[in-house]
Design a protein that fits this description.
The complex is a heterodimer of chains A (196) and B (368). Chain A is built from five helices and five strands. Chain A has helices at 4-18, 41-50, 109-119, 150-157, 176-190; strands at 23-26, 31-36, 55-64, 69-78, 83-92. The relative contact order of chain A is 0.11. Chain B has a three-stranded antiparallel sheet. A three-stranded antiparallel sheet of chain B has the order 6-7-8. The chains are: A alpha+beta (196), B alpha+beta (368).
Protein backbone atom coordinates (compact mmCIF):
# COMPACT_ATOMS: atom_id res chain seq x y z
CA UNK A 1 0.00 0.00 0.00
CA UNK A 2 1.83 3.07 -1.23
CA UNK A 3 1.32 6.70 -0.36
CA UNK A 4 -2.28 7.65 -1.05
CA UNK A 5 -1.64 11.09 -2.52
CA UNK A 6 0.72 9.53 -5.08
CA UNK A 7 -2.08 7.17 -6.01
CA UNK A 8 -4.46 10.04 -6.73
CA UNK A 9 -1.78 11.66 -8.89
CA UNK A 10 -1.24 8.34 -10.63
CA UNK A 11 -4.94 8.10 -11.51
CA UNK A 12 -5.01 11.66 -12.76
CA UNK A 13 -2.01 11.04 -15.01
CA UNK A 14 -3.54 7.79 -16.24
CA UNK A 15 -6.81 9.46 -17.15
CA UNK A 16 -5.10 12.43 -18.79
CA UNK A 17 -3.02 10.05 -20.92
CA UNK A 18 -6.09 8.28 -22.26
CA UNK A 19 -8.89 10.80 -22.54
CA UNK A 20 -9.70 14.43 -21.95
CA UNK A 21 -11.91 14.67 -18.85
CA UNK A 22 -14.48 17.47 -18.70
CA UNK A 23 -13.92 18.02 -14.99
CA UNK A 24 -11.67 16.61 -12.27
CA UNK A 25 -12.34 16.70 -8.54
CA UNK A 26 -10.23 15.32 -5.72
CA UNK A 27 -12.39 14.25 -2.79
CA UNK A 28 -10.25 13.54 0.22
CA UNK A 29 -7.21 11.32 0.33
CA UNK A 30 -8.73 8.22 -1.18
CA UNK A 31 -11.15 9.42 -3.78
CA UNK A 32 -11.05 11.18 -7.11
CA UNK A 33 -13.87 11.98 -9.51
CA UNK A 34 -13.85 12.59 -13.25
CA UNK A 35 -16.61 13.87 -15.41
CA UNK A 36 -16.11 12.44 -18.88
CA UNK A 37 -17.96 12.47 -22.18
CA UNK A 38 -20.35 9.63 -22.90
CA UNK A 39 -18.16 8.17 -25.63
CA UNK A 40 -15.12 7.99 -23.36
CA UNK A 41 -16.70 5.90 -20.60
CA UNK A 42 -15.73 2.50 -21.96
CA UNK A 43 -12.28 3.67 -22.99
CA UNK A 44 -11.41 4.97 -19.54
CA UNK A 45 -12.95 2.00 -17.73
CA UNK A 46 -10.81 -0.40 -19.79
CA UNK A 47 -7.72 1.69 -19.07
CA UNK A 48 -8.49 1.73 -15.35
CA UNK A 49 -9.16 -2.00 -15.28
CA UNK A 50 -5.86 -2.73 -16.99
CA UNK A 51 -4.11 -0.53 -14.42
CA UNK A 52 -5.58 -2.54 -11.54
CA UNK A 53 -8.95 -1.00 -10.80
CA UNK A 54 -10.59 -4.40 -11.13
CA UNK A 55 -13.53 -4.01 -8.80
CA UNK A 56 -16.72 -2.23 -9.79
CA UNK A 57 -18.12 -0.96 -6.53
CA UNK A 58 -21.18 0.90 -7.67
CA UNK A 59 -23.09 1.85 -10.78
CA UNK A 60 -26.10 4.09 -10.80
CA UNK A 61 -27.62 7.22 -12.22
CA UNK A 62 -28.63 10.68 -11.05
CA UNK A 63 -31.57 12.52 -12.55
CA UNK A 64 -31.23 16.21 -13.41
CA UNK A 65 -34.54 17.15 -15.03
CA UNK A 66 -33.78 20.88 -15.31
CA UNK A 67 -30.71 20.30 -17.43
CA UNK A 68 -32.51 17.43 -19.17
CA UNK A 69 -29.93 14.72 -18.65
CA UNK A 70 -29.11 11.70 -16.55
CA UNK A 71 -25.70 11.48 -14.99
CA UNK A 72 -24.34 7.94 -14.90
CA UNK A 73 -21.82 7.13 -12.21
CA UNK A 74 -19.33 4.26 -12.15
CA UNK A 75 -17.20 3.76 -9.05
CA UNK A 76 -14.18 1.49 -9.39
CA UNK A 77 -11.66 0.40 -6.79
CA UNK A 78 -8.14 -0.94 -6.73
CA UNK A 79 -7.12 -2.67 -3.53
CA UNK A 80 -3.38 -2.43 -4.17
CA UNK A 81 -3.48 1.32 -4.80
CA UNK A 82 -6.44 2.20 -2.63
CA UNK A 83 -8.25 4.96 -4.49
CA UNK A 84 -11.90 5.07 -5.41
CA UNK A 85 -12.38 6.49 -8.87
CA UNK A 86 -15.73 7.99 -9.78
CA UNK A 87 -16.44 8.19 -13.48
CA UNK A 88 -19.46 10.30 -14.31
CA UNK A 89 -21.00 10.81 -17.72
CA UNK A 90 -24.04 12.72 -18.86
CA UNK A 91 -26.56 11.19 -21.22
CA UNK A 92 -29.71 12.55 -22.81
CA UNK A 93 -32.81 12.27 -20.69
CA UNK A 94 -35.17 11.83 -23.64
CA UNK A 95 -33.30 8.86 -25.06
CA UNK A 96 -31.19 7.37 -22.25
CA UNK A 97 -29.02 4.73 -23.89
CA UNK A 98 -25.48 3.67 -23.06
CA UNK A 99 -23.68 0.47 -23.99
CA UNK A 100 -23.36 -2.05 -21.21
CA UNK A 101 -20.05 -2.37 -19.39
CA UNK A 102 -20.67 -6.08 -18.90
CA UNK A 103 -17.67 -7.17 -21.03
CA UNK A 104 -15.38 -5.05 -18.83
CA UNK A 105 -16.97 -5.62 -15.43
CA UNK A 106 -19.13 -8.80 -15.26
CA UNK A 107 -20.35 -7.68 -11.86
CA UNK A 108 -22.29 -4.83 -13.48
CA UNK A 109 -25.10 -7.11 -14.58
CA UNK A 110 -27.49 -6.52 -11.74
CA UNK A 111 -26.50 -2.89 -11.21
CA UNK A 112 -27.49 -2.13 -14.77
CA UNK A 113 -30.69 -4.06 -14.39
CA UNK A 114 -31.56 -2.05 -11.31
CA UNK A 115 -30.60 1.20 -12.99
CA UNK A 116 -32.95 0.40 -15.84
CA UNK A 117 -35.72 -0.40 -13.42
CA UNK A 118 -35.37 2.76 -11.36
CA UNK A 119 -34.34 5.28 -14.03
CA UNK A 120 -35.27 3.76 -17.37
CA UNK A 121 -31.72 3.89 -18.73
CA UNK A 122 -31.21 1.33 -21.49
CA UNK A 123 -28.07 -0.82 -21.54
CA UNK A 124 -27.82 -2.64 -24.87
CA UNK A 125 -25.31 -5.48 -24.52
CA UNK A 126 -26.64 -6.66 -21.18
CA UNK A 127 -28.80 -9.70 -22.00
CA UNK A 128 -31.52 -9.22 -19.41
CA UNK A 129 -31.41 -5.58 -18.37
CA UNK A 130 -35.11 -5.25 -19.20
CA UNK A 131 -36.30 -7.99 -16.85
CA UNK A 132 -37.98 -6.82 -13.70
CA UNK A 133 -35.96 -7.22 -10.53
CA UNK A 134 -37.54 -5.69 -7.43
CA UNK A 135 -40.63 -3.83 -8.60
CA UNK A 136 -43.34 -6.26 -9.54
CA UNK A 137 -45.77 -5.23 -12.29
CA UNK A 138 -44.69 -1.61 -12.26
CA UNK A 139 -47.06 0.54 -14.34
CA UNK A 140 -45.68 4.07 -14.12
CA UNK A 141 -42.55 6.02 -15.04
CA UNK A 142 -39.39 4.68 -13.32
CA UNK A 143 -39.69 5.65 -9.67
CA UNK A 144 -36.34 7.26 -8.93
CA UNK A 145 -36.83 9.93 -11.60
CA UNK A 146 -37.43 13.29 -10.02
CA UNK A 147 -40.76 13.85 -11.75
CA UNK A 148 -42.25 10.74 -10.17
CA UNK A 149 -44.38 11.72 -7.20
CA UNK A 150 -44.97 8.83 -4.78
CA UNK A 151 -47.88 10.57 -3.12
CA UNK A 152 -49.80 11.13 -6.37
CA UNK A 153 -49.04 7.56 -7.42
CA UNK A 154 -50.32 6.20 -4.15
CA UNK A 155 -53.51 8.28 -4.37
CA UNK A 156 -54.16 7.01 -7.87
CA UNK A 157 -53.23 3.41 -7.21
CA UNK A 158 -54.92 3.00 -3.86
CA UNK A 159 -58.19 4.99 -3.77
CA UNK A 160 -59.33 6.59 -0.55
CA UNK A 161 -61.03 4.06 1.63
CA UNK A 162 -64.61 4.70 2.70
CA UNK A 163 -65.04 3.97 6.39
CA UNK A 164 -68.43 2.74 7.55
CA UNK A 165 -67.83 4.00 11.08
CA UNK A 166 -66.90 7.60 11.76
CA UNK A 167 -63.84 7.66 14.01
CA UNK A 168 -63.24 11.39 13.96
CA UNK A 169 -63.21 13.09 17.36
CA UNK A 170 -66.38 15.00 18.07
CA UNK A 171 -66.36 15.17 21.83
CA UNK A 172 -63.67 17.45 23.34
CA UNK A 173 -63.27 15.02 26.23
CA UNK A 174 -61.75 12.41 23.88
CA UNK A 175 -59.47 14.78 22.02
CA UNK A 176 -55.82 14.01 22.65
CA UNK A 177 -54.83 17.55 21.79
CA UNK A 178 -57.27 18.98 24.32
CA UNK A 179 -56.02 16.56 26.97
CA UNK A 180 -52.43 17.58 26.24
CA UNK A 181 -53.26 21.25 26.51
CA UNK A 182 -54.97 20.62 29.83
CA UNK A 183 -51.94 18.74 31.12
CA UNK A 184 -49.59 21.54 30.14
CA UNK A 185 -51.87 24.13 31.74
CA UNK A 186 -52.01 22.12 34.93
CA UNK A 187 -48.22 21.68 35.01
CA UNK A 188 -47.75 25.41 34.54
CA UNK A 189 -50.19 26.20 37.30
CA UNK A 190 -48.38 23.89 39.71
CA UNK A 191 -44.97 25.31 38.94
CA UNK A 192 -43.59 27.63 41.55
CA UNK A 193 -41.42 30.68 41.01
CA UNK A 194 -41.79 33.31 38.40
CA UNK A 195 -44.55 32.70 35.84
CA UNK A 196 -43.49 33.21 32.22
CA UNK B 1 -34.04 -35.52 -17.21
CA UNK B 2 -36.82 -33.88 -15.32
CA UNK B 3 -36.42 -30.54 -13.61
CA UNK B 4 -38.38 -29.35 -10.66
CA UNK B 5 -38.70 -25.90 -9.17
CA UNK B 6 -37.94 -25.38 -5.50
CA UNK B 7 -38.07 -22.28 -3.34
CA UNK B 8 -35.67 -21.59 -0.52
CA UNK B 9 -37.31 -18.93 1.56
CA UNK B 10 -38.70 -16.47 2.40
CA UNK B 11 -39.79 -18.73 5.25
CA UNK B 12 -37.09 -21.28 5.78
CA UNK B 13 -34.80 -22.03 8.74
CA UNK B 14 -31.74 -21.75 6.52
CA UNK B 15 -32.70 -18.49 4.88
CA UNK B 16 -31.65 -15.19 6.36
CA UNK B 17 -34.09 -12.42 5.77
CA UNK B 18 -37.01 -12.03 3.45
CA UNK B 19 -35.65 -13.11 0.12
CA UNK B 20 -36.32 -16.22 -1.85
CA UNK B 21 -33.87 -18.37 -3.82
CA UNK B 22 -35.62 -19.98 -6.77
CA UNK B 23 -33.90 -23.19 -7.82
CA UNK B 24 -34.50 -25.56 -10.72
CA UNK B 25 -33.20 -28.89 -9.52
CA UNK B 26 -32.48 -32.26 -11.05
CA UNK B 27 -32.24 -34.82 -8.29
CA UNK B 28 -30.54 -32.80 -5.63
CA UNK B 29 -28.22 -30.87 -7.93
CA UNK B 30 -29.16 -27.25 -8.68
CA UNK B 31 -29.31 -26.61 -12.42
CA UNK B 32 -30.43 -22.99 -12.46
CA UNK B 33 -31.07 -20.56 -9.66
CA UNK B 34 -31.76 -16.91 -9.03
CA UNK B 35 -32.67 -14.68 -6.13
CA UNK B 36 -36.02 -12.95 -5.89
CA UNK B 37 -35.55 -9.87 -3.70
CA UNK B 38 -37.98 -7.09 -2.89
CA UNK B 39 -40.14 -8.73 -0.26
CA UNK B 40 -39.16 -6.62 2.73
CA UNK B 41 -39.21 -3.01 1.67
CA UNK B 42 -38.39 -0.84 -1.33
CA UNK B 43 -38.07 2.80 -2.18
CA UNK B 44 -35.70 3.78 0.61
CA UNK B 45 -33.54 5.78 -1.76
CA UNK B 46 -36.59 7.73 -2.90
CA UNK B 47 -37.67 8.19 0.69
CA UNK B 48 -34.28 9.63 1.62
CA UNK B 49 -34.54 12.24 -1.15
CA UNK B 50 -37.79 13.45 0.34
CA UNK B 51 -36.57 13.78 3.94
CA UNK B 52 -34.45 16.42 5.61
CA UNK B 53 -30.84 15.65 6.48
CA UNK B 54 -31.70 15.28 10.13
CA UNK B 55 -34.88 13.29 9.45
CA UNK B 56 -32.97 10.70 7.47
CA UNK B 57 -31.25 9.45 10.61
CA UNK B 58 -34.39 7.57 11.55
CA UNK B 59 -34.70 5.95 8.13
CA UNK B 60 -31.19 4.81 7.28
CA UNK B 61 -30.63 2.14 9.96
CA UNK B 62 -33.48 0.16 8.43
CA UNK B 63 -31.42 -0.54 5.33
CA UNK B 64 -29.57 -3.37 7.04
CA UNK B 65 -31.24 -5.01 10.00
CA UNK B 66 -28.53 -7.19 11.62
CA UNK B 67 -25.91 -4.43 11.53
CA UNK B 68 -27.64 -1.03 11.39
CA UNK B 69 -24.75 1.11 12.59
CA UNK B 70 -22.75 0.89 9.38
CA UNK B 71 -25.54 2.79 7.63
CA UNK B 72 -25.41 5.59 10.16
CA UNK B 73 -21.63 5.72 9.88
CA UNK B 74 -21.61 5.77 6.06
CA UNK B 75 -24.32 8.43 5.96
CA UNK B 76 -22.68 10.61 8.59
CA UNK B 77 -19.26 10.25 6.95
CA UNK B 78 -20.60 11.21 3.55
CA UNK B 79 -22.39 14.29 4.86
CA UNK B 80 -19.33 15.31 6.88
CA UNK B 81 -17.13 14.96 3.81
CA UNK B 82 -19.45 17.27 1.87
CA UNK B 83 -19.59 19.72 4.75
CA UNK B 84 -15.84 19.59 5.35
CA UNK B 85 -16.63 18.99 9.00
CA UNK B 86 -14.14 17.77 11.60
CA UNK B 87 -15.88 15.84 14.35
CA UNK B 88 -14.43 15.88 17.90
CA UNK B 89 -11.70 13.36 18.70
CA UNK B 90 -13.71 11.43 21.29
CA UNK B 91 -16.49 10.84 18.74
CA UNK B 92 -14.23 8.76 16.51
CA UNK B 93 -13.46 6.39 19.37
CA UNK B 94 -17.08 6.06 20.43
CA UNK B 95 -18.03 5.36 16.83
CA UNK B 96 -15.41 2.64 16.62
CA UNK B 97 -16.71 0.97 19.77
CA UNK B 98 -20.24 1.00 18.38
CA UNK B 99 -19.16 -0.28 14.98
CA UNK B 100 -17.08 -3.10 16.42
CA UNK B 101 -19.85 -4.16 18.81
CA UNK B 102 -22.18 -4.22 15.83
CA UNK B 103 -19.68 -6.30 13.88
CA UNK B 104 -19.46 -8.84 16.70
CA UNK B 105 -23.23 -9.02 16.94
CA UNK B 106 -23.59 -9.48 13.20
CA UNK B 107 -20.91 -12.18 13.10
CA UNK B 108 -22.53 -13.97 16.02
CA UNK B 109 -25.86 -13.87 14.27
CA UNK B 110 -24.46 -15.31 11.07
CA UNK B 111 -22.36 -17.88 12.94
CA UNK B 112 -25.46 -18.90 14.83
CA UNK B 113 -27.27 -19.00 11.51
CA UNK B 114 -24.96 -21.83 10.56
CA UNK B 115 -26.93 -23.87 13.08
CA UNK B 116 -30.05 -23.71 10.92
CA UNK B 117 -28.87 -25.39 7.70
CA UNK B 118 -26.60 -27.84 9.52
CA UNK B 119 -29.27 -28.85 12.01
CA UNK B 120 -27.24 -27.85 15.02
CA UNK B 121 -29.45 -25.58 17.02
CA UNK B 122 -27.35 -25.43 20.21
CA UNK B 123 -24.94 -23.20 18.34
CA UNK B 124 -27.73 -20.86 17.37
CA UNK B 125 -29.04 -20.55 20.92
CA UNK B 126 -25.59 -19.81 22.33
CA UNK B 127 -24.80 -17.23 19.67
CA UNK B 128 -28.13 -15.48 20.03
CA UNK B 129 -27.81 -15.40 23.81
CA UNK B 130 -24.50 -13.58 23.46
CA UNK B 131 -25.91 -11.26 20.84
CA UNK B 132 -28.64 -10.43 23.30
CA UNK B 133 -26.03 -9.17 25.77
CA UNK B 134 -24.67 -6.86 23.07
CA UNK B 135 -28.17 -5.56 22.46
CA UNK B 136 -28.45 -4.88 26.21
CA UNK B 137 -25.25 -2.85 26.04
CA UNK B 138 -26.61 -0.96 23.03
CA UNK B 139 -29.77 -0.26 24.96
CA UNK B 140 -27.76 1.27 27.77
CA UNK B 141 -25.72 3.41 25.40
CA UNK B 142 -28.32 4.50 22.88
CA UNK B 143 -31.73 3.70 24.34
CA UNK B 144 -32.64 1.28 21.57
CA UNK B 145 -31.86 -2.35 20.97
CA UNK B 146 -31.85 -2.77 17.20
CA UNK B 147 -32.11 0.60 15.43
CA UNK B 148 -29.86 2.82 17.46
CA UNK B 149 -29.89 6.09 15.47
CA UNK B 150 -26.82 6.97 17.48
CA UNK B 151 -24.18 8.06 14.97
CA UNK B 152 -25.43 11.34 13.54
CA UNK B 153 -23.99 14.02 11.28
CA UNK B 154 -21.42 15.87 13.37
CA UNK B 155 -20.76 13.25 16.02
CA UNK B 156 -22.79 10.90 18.15
CA UNK B 157 -26.10 11.70 19.78
CA UNK B 158 -24.91 11.48 23.37
CA UNK B 159 -21.82 10.63 25.38
CA UNK B 160 -21.34 7.09 26.71
CA UNK B 161 -23.17 6.55 30.00
CA UNK B 162 -21.08 6.29 33.14
CA UNK B 163 -19.89 2.82 34.02
CA UNK B 164 -20.53 1.32 30.59
CA UNK B 165 -16.85 0.24 30.41
CA UNK B 166 -17.55 -2.29 33.15
CA UNK B 167 -20.42 -3.81 31.19
CA UNK B 168 -18.47 -3.90 27.94
CA UNK B 169 -15.36 -5.38 29.56
CA UNK B 170 -17.39 -8.01 31.41
CA UNK B 171 -19.06 -9.02 28.17
CA UNK B 172 -15.79 -9.13 26.21
CA UNK B 173 -14.08 -11.25 28.88
CA UNK B 174 -17.04 -13.60 28.92
CA UNK B 175 -17.09 -13.95 25.14
CA UNK B 176 -13.35 -14.46 24.96
CA UNK B 177 -13.37 -17.12 27.65
CA UNK B 178 -15.87 -19.11 25.63
CA UNK B 179 -14.14 -18.69 22.27
CA UNK B 180 -12.82 -22.27 22.32
CA UNK B 181 -16.27 -23.52 23.19
CA UNK B 182 -17.70 -21.64 20.22
CA UNK B 183 -15.20 -23.23 17.88
CA UNK B 184 -15.99 -26.66 19.27
CA UNK B 185 -19.70 -26.14 18.80
CA UNK B 186 -19.42 -25.02 15.20
CA UNK B 187 -16.43 -25.34 12.96
CA UNK B 188 -14.50 -27.94 15.00
CA UNK B 189 -17.55 -30.13 15.39
CA UNK B 190 -17.15 -33.31 13.29
CA UNK B 191 -20.80 -33.45 12.29
CA UNK B 192 -20.73 -29.83 11.12
CA UNK B 193 -17.33 -30.19 9.42
CA UNK B 194 -18.82 -32.84 7.14
CA UNK B 195 -21.31 -30.29 5.89
CA UNK B 196 -19.10 -27.23 5.58
CA UNK B 197 -15.68 -28.53 4.60
CA UNK B 198 -14.95 -28.37 0.85
CA UNK B 199 -18.41 -27.12 -0.04
CA UNK B 200 -19.23 -23.88 -1.83
CA UNK B 201 -15.79 -23.13 -3.13
CA UNK B 202 -14.93 -19.59 -4.11
CA UNK B 203 -11.78 -19.34 -6.26
CA UNK B 204 -9.98 -16.01 -6.52
CA UNK B 205 -10.90 -15.56 -10.19
CA UNK B 206 -14.58 -15.78 -9.29
CA UNK B 207 -14.12 -13.19 -6.56
CA UNK B 208 -12.90 -10.62 -9.06
CA UNK B 209 -15.54 -11.56 -11.58
CA UNK B 210 -18.40 -11.10 -9.14
CA UNK B 211 -16.88 -8.21 -7.25
CA UNK B 212 -17.28 -9.92 -3.90
CA UNK B 213 -15.76 -8.00 -0.99
CA UNK B 214 -15.27 -8.61 2.70
CA UNK B 215 -14.75 -12.05 4.13
CA UNK B 216 -15.54 -13.76 0.84
CA UNK B 217 -12.69 -11.92 -0.86
CA UNK B 218 -10.17 -12.15 1.97
CA UNK B 219 -10.76 -15.88 2.39
CA UNK B 220 -9.77 -16.42 -1.22
CA UNK B 221 -7.15 -13.94 -2.36
CA UNK B 222 -4.94 -14.14 0.74
CA UNK B 223 -4.42 -10.39 1.01
CA UNK B 224 -5.58 -8.09 3.85
CA UNK B 225 -8.08 -6.21 1.75
CA UNK B 226 -10.04 -4.53 4.48
CA UNK B 227 -11.16 -0.90 4.19
CA UNK B 228 -10.24 -0.38 7.83
CA UNK B 229 -6.65 -1.25 6.85
CA UNK B 230 -6.19 0.09 3.33
CA UNK B 231 -8.01 3.41 3.74
CA UNK B 232 -8.65 3.88 7.45
CA UNK B 233 -11.66 5.89 8.50
CA UNK B 234 -12.46 7.07 12.06
CA UNK B 235 -9.27 6.20 14.03
CA UNK B 236 -8.61 2.71 12.73
CA UNK B 237 -5.08 3.79 11.88
CA UNK B 238 -4.33 4.28 15.57
CA UNK B 239 -5.36 0.85 16.82
CA UNK B 240 -3.54 -2.38 16.23
CA UNK B 241 -5.38 -5.25 14.65
CA UNK B 242 -4.81 -7.97 12.13
CA UNK B 243 -6.97 -8.84 9.19
CA UNK B 244 -7.41 -12.62 9.12
CA UNK B 245 -6.85 -14.05 5.63
CA UNK B 246 -6.69 -17.40 3.92
CA UNK B 247 -6.00 -18.76 0.45
CA UNK B 248 -8.50 -21.60 0.37
CA UNK B 249 -12.10 -20.50 0.42
CA UNK B 250 -14.68 -23.09 1.37
CA UNK B 251 -17.60 -22.60 3.74
CA UNK B 252 -15.48 -23.64 6.71
CA UNK B 253 -12.61 -21.27 6.12
CA UNK B 254 -15.00 -18.35 5.73
CA UNK B 255 -16.70 -19.15 9.04
CA UNK B 256 -13.24 -19.53 10.56
CA UNK B 257 -12.33 -16.01 9.42
CA UNK B 258 -15.54 -14.69 10.96
CA UNK B 259 -14.58 -16.08 14.36
CA UNK B 260 -11.05 -14.71 14.02
CA UNK B 261 -12.49 -11.30 13.20
CA UNK B 262 -14.55 -11.42 16.37
CA UNK B 263 -11.30 -11.83 18.34
CA UNK B 264 -9.80 -8.83 16.53
CA UNK B 265 -12.90 -6.75 17.22
CA UNK B 266 -12.68 -7.59 20.91
CA UNK B 267 -9.09 -6.36 20.92
CA UNK B 268 -10.06 -3.16 19.05
CA UNK B 269 -12.81 -2.34 21.56
CA UNK B 270 -10.40 -2.82 24.47
CA UNK B 271 -7.85 -0.51 22.87
CA UNK B 272 -10.57 2.08 22.20
CA UNK B 273 -11.71 2.04 25.81
CA UNK B 274 -8.10 2.59 26.91
CA UNK B 275 -7.12 5.26 24.39
CA UNK B 276 -10.37 7.22 24.32
CA UNK B 277 -9.82 10.89 25.26
CA UNK B 278 -12.32 13.04 27.13
CA UNK B 279 -14.11 15.88 25.44
CA UNK B 280 -17.23 16.89 23.54
CA UNK B 281 -18.94 14.34 21.31
CA UNK B 282 -20.98 16.41 18.91
CA UNK B 283 -20.67 19.54 16.84
CA UNK B 284 -23.34 21.37 14.97
CA UNK B 285 -23.01 20.58 11.27
CA UNK B 286 -24.64 23.70 9.92
CA UNK B 287 -26.17 27.02 10.89
CA UNK B 288 -29.62 27.48 12.38
CA UNK B 289 -31.90 24.87 13.81
CA UNK B 290 -31.83 21.30 12.61
CA UNK B 291 -34.78 21.52 10.23
CA UNK B 292 -32.93 24.14 8.18
CA UNK B 293 -29.55 22.43 7.91
CA UNK B 294 -28.11 22.46 4.44
CA UNK B 295 -25.15 20.61 3.00
CA UNK B 296 -22.95 22.10 0.24
CA UNK B 297 -23.32 20.73 -3.26
CA UNK B 298 -21.09 17.86 -4.29
CA UNK B 299 -20.70 14.17 -5.01
CA UNK B 300 -19.13 11.78 -2.54
CA UNK B 301 -18.86 8.05 -2.03
CA UNK B 302 -18.34 6.96 1.53
CA UNK B 303 -17.34 3.32 2.07
CA UNK B 304 -17.36 1.46 5.37
CA UNK B 305 -16.17 -2.08 6.11
CA UNK B 306 -19.23 -4.00 7.22
CA UNK B 307 -19.31 -7.60 8.41
CA UNK B 308 -20.19 -8.68 4.87
CA UNK B 309 -17.86 -6.44 2.92
CA UNK B 310 -17.65 -2.98 1.47
CA UNK B 311 -20.77 -1.03 2.30
CA UNK B 312 -21.10 2.46 0.95
CA UNK B 313 -23.36 5.41 0.43
CA UNK B 314 -23.11 7.42 -2.74
CA UNK B 315 -24.41 10.84 -1.91
CA UNK B 316 -25.20 13.82 -4.08
CA UNK B 317 -26.22 17.17 -2.67
CA UNK B 318 -27.34 20.25 -4.56
CA UNK B 319 -27.01 22.49 -1.54
CA UNK B 320 -30.57 22.01 -0.34
CA UNK B 321 -32.14 20.90 2.89
CA UNK B 322 -32.56 17.33 1.62
CA UNK B 323 -30.09 14.99 -0.10
CA UNK B 324 -30.46 15.17 -3.87
CA UNK B 325 -29.66 11.51 -4.41
CA UNK B 326 -28.57 8.76 -2.05
CA UNK B 327 -27.37 5.49 -3.52
CA UNK B 328 -26.77 2.53 -1.28
CA UNK B 329 -24.08 0.05 -2.25
CA UNK B 330 -25.19 -3.04 -0.40
CA UNK B 331 -22.32 -5.32 0.57
CA UNK B 332 -24.29 -8.43 -0.37
CA UNK B 333 -25.15 -7.27 -3.87
CA UNK B 334 -22.52 -9.29 -5.80
CA UNK B 335 -22.73 -12.56 -3.91
CA UNK B 336 -26.47 -12.34 -3.34
CA UNK B 337 -27.67 -11.68 -6.86
CA UNK B 338 -24.94 -12.51 -9.36
CA UNK B 339 -23.28 -15.16 -7.22
CA UNK B 340 -26.47 -17.11 -6.74
CA UNK B 341 -27.26 -16.90 -10.43
CA UNK B 342 -23.81 -17.85 -11.72
CA UNK B 343 -22.07 -20.02 -9.17
CA UNK B 344 -24.76 -21.77 -7.18
CA UNK B 345 -25.71 -24.11 -10.06
CA UNK B 346 -23.74 -27.32 -9.72
CA UNK B 347 -24.04 -27.39 -5.93
CA UNK B 348 -26.53 -29.42 -3.96
CA UNK B 349 -29.84 -28.08 -2.67
CA UNK B 350 -28.74 -28.11 0.96
CA UNK B 351 -25.66 -26.05 0.09
CA UNK B 352 -27.77 -23.11 -1.05
CA UNK B 353 -28.54 -22.16 2.53
CA UNK B 354 -24.83 -22.41 3.36
CA UNK B 355 -24.01 -20.04 0.50
CA UNK B 356 -26.48 -17.51 1.84
CA UNK B 357 -25.10 -17.85 5.36
CA UNK B 358 -21.34 -18.01 4.87
CA UNK B 359 -21.08 -15.49 2.03
CA UNK B 360 -23.16 -13.06 4.04
CA UNK B 361 -26.32 -12.20 2.13
CA UNK B 362 -28.45 -9.61 3.88
CA UNK B 363 -31.66 -9.23 1.89
CA UNK B 364 -32.79 -5.82 3.24
CA UNK B 365 -29.77 -4.12 1.70
CA UNK B 366 -30.59 -5.69 -1.68
CA UNK B 367 -34.19 -4.47 -1.47
CA UNK B 368 -33.67 -0.96 -0.10
Amino acid sequence: MTNSMNNVEFVKALVAKNIEPVKTETIGKYQVAFEVRKNDVHHILVALKNAGWIQLSYLSAIDWPEENHFELVYIVMNWEKPVYVQIRAKIQRDDPVIDSVLPIYPGAKYYERECHEFFGVKFPGNPDYEKQLILENWDDIPPLRKDFDPEAYSDRKFPKRVYTTDYSVTNDKDSKLKKREQRIARALSLRGGKKQ
Amino acid sequence: MKQMKLFLGPQHPGMHGNASVHMYVDGDIIKRSYLLPGMLHRGFEKGMERKLWVNNISLIPRVCVPEPDINEMAFAQAAEALLGLEVPERTHWIRMIILELARISSHLMSYGGLGGPTGHYTLMYHAHADRNTILDIFEKITGARVYHQYIVIGGVRKDLPEGIETDINAFLDDLESRYIEYRDLGIENPSVIKRIKDTIMLPAAVVWELGVTGIGMRSSVNRPYDIRKVMPYARYDQVEFEVPISDYSDARSRVDLKLKEVVQSISIIRQCLKKMPEGPVRVKPSRGQSMRWTVPAGYVYSPVESSRGEFGYYMVSNGGTTPYRVGVRGASYPQGLLGIEKYLPGNRIDDAALWVDTMGVCSPEIDR
